[in-house]
């Protein structure tokens, strides 16, 4: 489908209209909307709340639940239309508060949705636009097209609900996406193509058993490393053996393999500061398998409270940064610089926390300050799909292949502190560009 879009027309007069529930995300995420006794649209669950509270709840729901239901191939399809310069729109009966976080994450600039009515800053439980479902949704899309000079006859639409027949019939290139049986029948009658996209993965018995086996493998590898260090009297050798072996066993037993591009860059410049994007608990295991030896990590002080950090702390002796106290934070950074000068590389995840989707977060400065002070290169590592195998809130790892791209080192010689922001932006952009256009894709 993306090949078809790329081979077609470009430019903003071509629209790409995406449904929300069942299209961009799996299943239904929005509360039901009904008609009250007077025939008005009723969104009673929101009555009496402020718009600010509803918007905050939408952001929280996105992070905690909806982000894990977003279809990876829907993301690819949206990205493809954006790259062609099409006018991309999310069209749904859902409210703006529910749709906005997903649209922002996907980079979609336009939303056609059910708008809420306010009185004195408080929601009435009614809509100012009418609930944009069925024929109302189709009418709203046609109105949007008139206002934005979009040619619907040359435009695309994607939806999967039984109420989306009128919506899909509004454009010249409709696609029934993972359709409800009623929509599938209608698509057959009208001759509309059907797309079946893969769903976000849910843990099954294989994932549960594999995760347990992976934990056993990690501990067995670390125990072997401790034994090696004790027998040889070489603590660093023991750590290196333990880290590499535990990562290999953990990945093998969970059924995760690595597809690495640019592997030679892992050894081109060491010691170095390695930075990576962060979406999953699986990231740590993948990065350990890549770096393997003579490295430690830098983490925020609050991470010490995470039980998963106990093993990492015991093995790697990471540097913890206390961001609440400037003096202690500087002392910690100085400690990381000393490690680099002793030949030990540093791994830092500059987003500071796991992101709910593959979209990059803002980069913090710590990694770049450390590299500048130690005058060592920064090596970006790009992880493409760890979040698909182990979502950020999941306790289990699904088997599969993780795509990794290790980019060329960025030298820090000649950097000045006053230019640090531009260097951070440059490295972040390199990672973003790699996620957008994967090597060899």
Automatic annotation (TrEMBL):
Domain of life: Bacteria
Coiled-coil regions listed: none
Protein name: Acyltransferase
Keywords: Acyltransferase, Transferase
Gene3D superfamilies: HAD superfamily/HAD-like (3.40.50.1000), SG protein - dephosphorylation function (1.20.1440.100)
Residue span, Phospholipid/glycerol acyltransferase domain: 272-386
One MF term in the entry's GO annotations: acyltransferase activity
């Amino acid at each position: 489908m993306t090949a078809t879009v790329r081979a077609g027309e470009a430019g903003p007069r071509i629209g790409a209209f995406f449904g929300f529930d069942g299209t961009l995300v799996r299943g239904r995420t929005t509360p039901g909307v009904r008609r009250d006794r007077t025939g008005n649209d009723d969104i009673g669950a929101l009555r009496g709340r402020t718009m600010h509270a509803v918007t905050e709840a939408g952001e929280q729901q996105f992070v905690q639940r909806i982000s894990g239901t977003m279809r990876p191939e829907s993301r690819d399809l949206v990205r493809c239309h954006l790259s062609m310069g099409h006018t991309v729109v999310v069209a749904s009966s859902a409210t703006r508060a529910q749709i906005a976080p997903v649209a922002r994450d996907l980079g979609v600039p336009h939303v056609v949705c059910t708008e809420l009515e306010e009185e004195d800053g408080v929601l009435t439980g009614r809509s100012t636009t009418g609930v944009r479902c069925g024929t109302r949704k189709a009418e709203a899309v046609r109105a949007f097209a008139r206002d934005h000079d979009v040619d619907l006859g040359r435009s695309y639409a994607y939806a999967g609900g039984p109420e989306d027949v009128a919506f899909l019939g509004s454009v010249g290139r409709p696609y029934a996406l993972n359709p409800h049986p009623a929509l599938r029948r209608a698509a057959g009658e009208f001759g509309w193509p059907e797309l079946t996209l893969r769903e976000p993965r849910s843990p099954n018995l294989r994932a549960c058993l594999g995760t347990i086996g992976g934990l056993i493998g990690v501990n067995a590898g670390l125990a072997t490393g401790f034994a090696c260090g004790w027998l040889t009297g070489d603590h660093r050798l023991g750590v290196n053996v333990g880290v590499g072996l535990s990562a290999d066993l953990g990945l093998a037993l969970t059924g995760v393999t690595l597809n690495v591009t640019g592997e030679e860059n892992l050894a081109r410049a060491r010691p170095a500061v390695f930075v990576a994007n962060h979406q999953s608990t699986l990231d740590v295991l993948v990065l350990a398998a890549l770096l393997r030896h003579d490295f430690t990590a830098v983490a925020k002080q609050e991470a010490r409270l995470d039980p998963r950090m106990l093993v990492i702390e015991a093995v790697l002796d990471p540097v913890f940064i206390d961001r609440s106290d400037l003096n202690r934070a500087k002392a910690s950074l100085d400690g990381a610089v000393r490690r680099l000068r002793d030949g030990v590389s540093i791994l830092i995840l500059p987003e500071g926390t796991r992101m709910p989707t593959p979209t990059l977060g803002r980069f913090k400065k710590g990694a770049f300050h450390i590299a500048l002070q130690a005058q060592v290169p920064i090596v970006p590592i790009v992880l493409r799909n760890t979040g698909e195998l182990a979502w950020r809130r999941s306790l289990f790892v699904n088997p599969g292949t993780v795509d990794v791209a290790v980019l060329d080192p960025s030298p820090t010689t000649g950097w000045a502190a006053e230019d640090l922001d531009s260097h951070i932006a440059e490295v972040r952009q390199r990672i973003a560009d790699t996620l957008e256009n994967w090597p060899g894709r």
